Amino acid sequence: MLSAAGLFAITTSATWAQTAKSATDKPAAEKSAADTSAAGKAAAGQTAAGKAADKMAAPKAGADNTLTAKEKADGWKLLFDGKTTDGWRVYKKQGAPVGWQAVDGVLTRVALEGDLITVDEYENFDLTIDWKIPEGANSGIFFHGVEKDDGPIYYTAPEYQLLDDDRHPDSRNGPTHQCGANYDLIAPAKKLCKPIGEWNTTRIVVRGPHVEHWLNGEKIVEYELWSDAWKQLVAKSKFRQWPDYGMAKTGHIAVQEHSFKVEFKNIKIKVLS
User: Fold this and answer.
1) What pTM does this model have?
2) What's the CA gap between 189 and 13, in Å, rounded?
3) 62-271: what fold?
4) What distances in angstroms separate CA 115 from CA 4, 56, 108, 153, one per listed residue?
5) CA distance 250 to 122
């Protein structure tokens, strides 16, 4: 016969074992729910990472038309010093421009003269530029521009469109003519231009055939130059009449003369390998 103490010990041991088993052997449904939750969190993390890749962290504020120590170390250089138009000239002209001037730290179109291009040519690069336009204005930023005797820069150079979408009539020609577009070819994924009178920040990344348009911290357009898809887009556009359009591997960066006052500052470039 067991003593009272022995009976208590056996009963306690059995109770503890049952409790431990219940704690470790979760029902299948509960385990499945836990696994599903973990998988959902992982998928959400992957989605967030993809969205983050299409956004750019805002740079630390600093003086206009200057480089931070980190930017210098990373290989960035200024294309506009805020004081002169050194490094720029008008398309198919030599010497200092007259229609484009440095005004209060801003590269400004002040009179009719022509598109303003960099003296140097660039192949692969990361370009950032702040810009502002008045009501009803139209302008653009070109890259891989080639100087040709028989035509303007847009015969060869793809364009990042700058436009007052609410007031300029070209906006009515569709989203491929609106702010941030690869002009007449690819519409921006989002409308991110700030209200007229506010500064916008554009970023253009060119690495081989791959091109990205960014606006105010988000990627809005990307495409592959010289691809079959690119050639098909060109064939359906106004540029189909110019066989050299978008085919150059290197060329000038330019800001467009379009009879409007346009302003630019913080023009920075990093040459990519």
Assistant:
1) 0.81
2) 67
3) Jelly Rolls (2.60.120)
4) 103, 29, 12, 8
5) 5
